[in-house]
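User: Last request for today: this protein with IPT, please.
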Amino acid sequence: RTLGLITTDLALHAPSQIASAVKSRAGECGASVLISMVEHPERCQAALQELLAQRVEGLLVNVPLDDPQAEHIRQLAAPVPVLFFDVSPEAKVHRLAFDAEQGATLGAEHLLSLGHRRIALLSGPESSVSSRARLAGWQARLAQDEIVPCAIAHGDWSAASGYEKGHQLLAGSTLPDAILVANDQMALGVMRACAEKGVAVPGQISVVGFDDTADSAWFSPPLTTVRQAFRIAGERSVEWLLSGSTDALWQTQLPVTLVERHSSA
Ligand code: IPT
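Assistant: Here's the final one, the structure of the complex with IPT:
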């Protein structure tokens, strides 16, 4: 049995950990996985045709797609079932996703409970559904306490962008108390910028990430972050595709958890 995975850049930690989980669970089930990596969402269609030509019996798509793009891919693939990881809950497609709103709320509440009020946001790319959902979740939770973020920046998920935007966020006359960062790789870059400026984490600034990818416990200081259990996502998705009961619309939201380490105080 053969499954296909269309994924965004595997140089990023989260997609590579999802791909790894998909591969190992499929292996345990006696299935193989063909992986196609796309640099741009528009390349999804071509990747789909290539995988269908190789007779995959189910497809996983971990590329940020808007609703019409995802629905179009689903139609093109039919009757082969497609499961999406990075689409909005409104898309009429099979979807397995982490609860972005819950994750954003957990991160914001953690900082509020520590007494922080001057909070900066480092979001992901505006083109990504999940990135927009995390940003909206942070803003909504802060608004409940009548807090407007002291600054908002957008990175591209990479540590390099976190470093660059981190320097921007630290450049003002008053430092933020804390920075909510949309993923751990950007948080790594932010902490590097803090170190260069001589700003102590968590003494002067708390930093909270999102993902809990495997390396985040080894950052310096170890990163407080919102854990998305990528292994479980990989396992559940493969099990569903191989279950054969893929007709009814399947939409599953996986919970996330706050992992408190030493980058926040
Ligand atoms: C999302 C990660 O949280 C982020 O760090 C980045 O790697 C992004 O993927 C790449 O698309 S997780 C995704 C399943 C929403």
